[in-house]
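FAQ: What does the model actually see?

It sees only this:
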Amino acid sequence: MGAYCTPKGRVLSILRIVPDGADYLLIGEISLLTKLLDRLRIYVMRANVTFTFENDTTVLGLSGMGFDSPIGPIHALSNFPERSLYELKPCYFLRERGDPAYGLILAPTDTAIRLWEDTSSDVMRCDADQWILLEIRAGNPRVTDKTSERFIPQTLNLDLINAVSFNKGCYPGQEIVARVRYRSRPKHRMIRVGVSHRVAAQVGDPVFLPDKEQRVGEVVAHAHTMDHTQGEMLISMAVAALDAPHYHLGNETSQLTRLSLPYDLTDAEPTKTG
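And it is asked to produce this:
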């Protein structure tokens, strides 16, 4: 996982990158793909590189114990190392971080249809809401057309999940991203929260402290639990407000309680230099 940033260090899109022979497959939010490809094509110039939509490949989200499929058996998803990629010709399996175990299958569309129909009861086929819930619990951020260019990588904890490199050469926004790491501190961090009932939250919705009108955060991702009775969210929250007992959306009845993430918010903080 990684992010493509603007020269100002703002995340335009979050991507998963899969090597495919001499090519690379970029998996991203569909609402941002046209915007992303238009931006990437600016830098092609005379390089022997082309960017196209891959219309013959389907991406499936799966979670569960394991399954037998048209591409062969995949047993005990939890035994696959987290954040790992496996080639299962003509497909790829990308295991994500999370409990329960979950991941992505990239397959030719005809194979994907058979896989979707033939997988056993030990695996759950994830619809969009279920997939987002798994991502929320794994602490993986989401950027859509509503929030594109709103956040820097650290605001979305991308540096905490090894999705930012501070060692490679130049990339758009590198100066801003590096300055936040070495010369200052992130003013916002992403947290996970829960709400005890269904709410009509949207990405980009503001979040407030109790009994105050001051905006301290913004919804990054939202999904309902499997039984559709509760909700969970990722919120980009002001560091100064992280210790609050709870938060709320614009509706006072929607009290948000902080939940745990599978990583520490301070894991990537370096010693500040002068």
